[in-house]
Amino acid sequence: MNRVADRRPLRADAARNVDKIITAARQCFREHGPEVPLQTIAVTAGVGPATLFRNFADKEELVLAALHRQLGLLVDPVIEEALAGPDAADGLFRVIDALMGVASDEANLLGAVAGRRGLLTGITGDLIESVAVLLGRGQGQGTLRSDISMTDLIRLLAMLIGVVDTMEAGSDAWRRPVALVEDAIRTERPQRPLPPQAPLPGTAYGSVLG
């Protein structure tokens, strides 16, 4: 069972505590990195450790809840617009852009998740279902390759999220690989230049990479 997705409605005071803990977690991960102790998050939230652990069994559960909230705030509205729009392929890539924006902004949260398989198959179940609808519509409209499956697309999304590990947190270096994926799965390549290349931070590859 996914506790993030299957939470029962909370009392008002308990809901406020959960909101404070999630807000503090995002702040602490942003300021201190993926290894920030849960005690620091509890202090920042103004709650005791018992309150934190009553709502979140461990750091990963807290991280997934924080990501789930950001996806709800920043990606769900884009999904609604995409599903209501006439161009499914355009809608699909607006959803991917929104997802990658969250992944970049919350890079330290992603870094705290021990295994990322649950990221796409668990907390983002609704997102995956919506992406499947957009893929099917795009294929029906002739704008997305008919030989692309949802398995392919899920793997491509997982690969794109992995791009966050190769760039500065909060940057938009993901736009170039997203554009490359778009070129690969559209039936016609968009007539636009690729977004600019961004360097790989913290590496000595500059002399051999373009």
From TrEMBL:
Positions of the DNA-binding region: 37-56
UniProt xrefs under PROSITE patterns: HTH_TETR_2 (PS50977)
Pfam families: TetR_N
Presence of the UniProt keyword DNA-binding in the record: yes
Residue stretches making up the HTH tetR-type domain: 15-74
Region (Disordered): 188-210
Keyword Secreted: no
Keywords: DNA-binding, Transcription, Transcription regulation
Protein name, as recorded: AcrR family transcriptional regulator
